[in-house]
Amino acid sequence: MLDPRRRVPRTDAVLADPRIAAAAARLGRPLVKEAVTAAQQQARDGLIAPEDVAEAALAALPPVATSLRSVLNATGVVLHTNLGRAPLGPAAREALGVAAGNCDVELDLATGARGRRGAGVVDALRAAVPGAGGAHVVNNGAAALALIAATFAVGREIVVSRGELVEIGDGFRIPDLVESTGARLREVGTTNRTHLADYERAIGPDTAFVLKVHPSNFTVTGFTSAVGVEKLAGLGVPVVADIGSGLLAPHPLLPDEPDAASVLAAGAVLVTASGDKLLGGPQAGLILGDGELVERVRRFPLARAMRVDKLTLAALEATLRGPVPPVRAALDAPVAELRARAEALAAQLPDVDVRVVDSAATVGGGGAPGVTLDSVALSLPESYAAALRAGEPAVLGRLESGRCLLDLRALAPADDEVLAGCVRAVRSGA
Ligand SMILES: *Cc1c(COP(=O)(O)O)cnc(C)c1O
């Protein structure tokens, strides 16, 4: 018997294989070399035949030069933080293609002079929220709030209800964030009840503004009371509202979710929100409101450190101007439509133990806590879950009562065929 080690092809020889060379041109040589080295080791260990080294290396290569992998969101959580919140729609993806190269992000092509960065997004935001005299975009919702605190409240007080001291995730807390800028928080009321008089007593010469934070990932029920923006605005100090979710106007299915237009109409001077929650765009922080105040925020030195790149500006503008983004389509999809899609999918999987079942979807960490959305799912044996996660693209479902549920609420209809293919691939591999 020949020692397989002697027959393992040399690295140079494998790298010279035209398919491997093409992959190296596309993905970069280090990544491809790593895959070749791993495949050579497999051959030495006798796990693959020496003549299959190139094949094995190719199979192990990622489709693109990123370790990030595409995941189909079949969890029924429309805004899944671990999956990058909102998926971008076709309009935003096309805009990313334009912005990926050189583009006139800060140039006036008519005159050849410097142009105002992000003017297109600002126009689109002001068109979408008529009450907003000004608009500015930063990295994310947290940056938007921190920048406002840094601009107006360093060494001064921000008055906020104890019922609105929110932890937004991964251990990050709004009160810590605000205080890290050098502003002082003046907490009023209790966890469950805060009254107008509590705010009144706390307001004084040191007050920079009253902050209203939307509890976007929890609800408090029972003996509760909170003061709305309209009443707070009557106190004679500026009100800043962190609405979280990024709804620009009211949404009929989410009556308890605040929106920028209504909050500004109620008297807030500034509103902050995320771009990648219910707005359905890229990660971004929106600052909307009084034109002069927005301009002060925009000119504040720290604003430069929170500036968004051209990719974000392009994707955000396309989300605002383009057709309904996937997140909104997912929220609005009628259950009958989801059921029809599920039945069609099940029909394509004749030899799979699949059932069409009712399901309950949620909006997710991005807003509307406690709201469930009627949905429909494919129910598969539990063993499918891990195999689907390992596929290309990966599919993330939900485990429930010993079954793997693939909920269609958060999945774009255009991805149904791909999902069916992923399930078939698992079935034939099993
Ligand atoms: C999500 C959220 C934030 C943080 O926004 P990011 O875009 O994640 O930085 C802040 N405040 C509220 C109320 C939120 O819901």
TrEMBL record:
Coiled-coil residue windows: none
The protein's required cofactors: pyridoxal 5'-phosphate
Pathway noted in the entry: Aminoacyl-tRNA biosynthesis; selenocysteinyl-tRNA(Sec) biosynthesis; selenocysteinyl-tRNA(Sec) from L-seryl-tRNA(Sec) (bacterial route): step 1/1
First-tier enzyme category under EC: transferase
Catalytic activity entry: L-seryl-tRNA(Sec) + selenophosphate + H(+) = L-selenocysteinyl-tRNA(Sec) + phosphate
Modified residues annotated as N6-(pyridoxal phosphate)lysine in this record: K277
Gene Ontology molecular-function annotations: transferase activity
Keywords annotated in UniProt: Cytoplasm, Protein biosynthesis, Pyridoxal phosphate, Selenium, Transferase
Function field: Converts seryl-tRNA(Sec) to selenocysteinyl-tRNA(Sec) required for selenoprotein biosynthesis.
Name of this chain's protein: L-seryl-tRNA(Sec) selenium transferase
Organism: Pseudonocardia zijingensis
Name of the gene this protein is made from: selA
